[in-house]
Amino acid sequence: MSDVAEPVAVERPRGVLRRELRVWEAFAISVGIMAPTAAMALNGTLPASIVGRAVPLAFLLASIAIALVSYSFIRLTSYFNHAGSAYALAGVTLGPRVGFFACWALLGTYSAFLAANFAEIGLFGESFFSGIGIWDNPDWVIISLVAAALIWLFAYNEIKAVTRSLLGFEAVSVALVTILVIVIYVKVIGGNAPNGQEFTFKPFVPAEGVGLSAVAFASVFGFLSFGGFEGAAALGEETNNPRRNVPLAIAVAVGFCGIFYTIVMFAQSLGFGIDQAGIDAFAGSSAPLNDLSQEYVGDGMADAINFGAMLSAFASGLGCALGAARLLFALGRDGFVTTRLGDTSRRTGAPIVSLAVVMLFAVIVGTALRINGTTSVNVFFYMGTIGVLSMLVAYIVVNLGAMRFLHLGRREAPWRVIIPILAIAALVYVIYKNVWPRPAYPYDNFPLMVGGWLLVGIGIALLYPGLARRIGIGLAESEDIRAPREEGAHRDA
């Protein structure tokens, strides 16, 4: 495949994606799926109820854990680049059946995240439109359906235009949060905070009575804010110089969000205050950035933050649609269900059939939950939890593949095997904390639902040997991974 996009007028064969993205455009999808503004708008309250003032410490530890997890993706994408992301990373290192299973798990993640994003757009859209007075108490599902149509339209466009739009949405939302954070720091350091809050580094030290296990548990919620960091891997067939640019995009995305999350959570902790009243306010807030905006700046800033969070959720939905469609495209191209899933638009290069399938799934799920009376907040957390549990399994598989290919295969220094081992330990811990102690209803059912989804994937992989054979042939013939396989990668086909 050429490094230069072909003219639109040139007919392209089915199943071919256009290689035309630069590193910052690949970076955009990873950051877009993580949705840093939306994550900061919702994910700090529960940790505050667990560790009090030490929320920034929990997010710092989560950033370190994710850095360990991302190592395997970064190193493997320097060898393999494929639209299926984990499909190829696990398929080449552990065999086609395992590759299918990892892809199946990640497909479940992106699809669930997409439904969660629709609800999140509706959630922040309600607050924004009500706040500016142009639409009083709108039904969140109407906003979500309009957003779904726009996401579908954007995702159908040429990938270069889509990633640039995605990066633009996130840039606006991050800029708004950055302005608020700067105001908080200036007022706290200058002694002009609304309730006399003072600047201190104590949020990085647990208060007396808060143990390391509590901080580790709270870091689980920080960990979940990084879901989708590997999104750039799904653009492996559309990025120029992918063995350099895809790993770089993932590394920069993880580093950027790790720093951003820690700084923003530090600002939120200082903004509410680290005394008991401030901790209670943080833990009890349903929209901490909105509350801090009103307290430190005014209603106008609160409306701007709600708008930014809505944009961030929209960008995340767009990123998930891109990722899910490409995973399903890669499966369909190798003969899963129907080869029509591997079709691409001759005009834009988008995987049109796969995109339609994932979009319809998310719209149907979100609408059905709304008809059932589920609130936008609950739809977001329900589908987000389901997606995260499936994601953790995919991450474990990829790290196991990295251990085998990189370290047991002696491609890299053997001592570095400690990195994926620590990453797997962190992932297993997060899964454990999500299932034990047994969570309240309906969260206790979500591990069972994810387990059922994963069992279906295992059944398909085991009961259809022809599919595994086609996957093996497809991976072997892929332009970007043929050379490493000939050098001795796993050949289970």
Taken as a percent bin, the fraction of beta residues is under 5%
The helix/strand order is: HHHHHHHHHHHHHHHHHHH
What is the CATH-assigned architecture? Up-down Bundle
Helix content: 55-70%
Average the pLDDT over all residues and give the rounded result: 89
Number of E-type strands: 0
Compact summary:
This protein has 493 residues and is mainly α. Helices cover 70% and strands 0% of the residues. 57% of the residues are buried.
How would you explain this protein's 3D organization?
The protein is mostly helical. The protein has one domain: Amino acid/polyamine transporter I, CATH 1.20.1740. It is about 70% helix and about 0% strand. The chain contains 19 helices and no strands. It has helices at about 25-35, 35-40, 45-50, 55-75, 85-95, 95-130, 140-155, 160-190, 210-225, 240-270, 275-285, 290-295, 300-335, 350-370, 375-410, 420-435, 445-465, 465-475, 480-485. The longest helix has about 35 residues, at about 95-130.
Q: Any key phrases for this structure?
A:
single chain; 493 residues; mainly alpha; Amino acid/polyamine transporter I; 19 helices; 70% helix; disordered N terminus; disordered C terminus
Write the layout of secondary structure elements.
Layout: H1 23-34, H2 36-42, H3 45-51, H4 55-76, H5 86-94, H6 96-131, H7 140-156, H8 159-189, H9 212-224, H10 242-272, H11 276-284, H12 288-296, H13 299-333, H14 352-371, H15 376-408, H16 418-435, H17 446-463, H18 465-477, H19 482-486
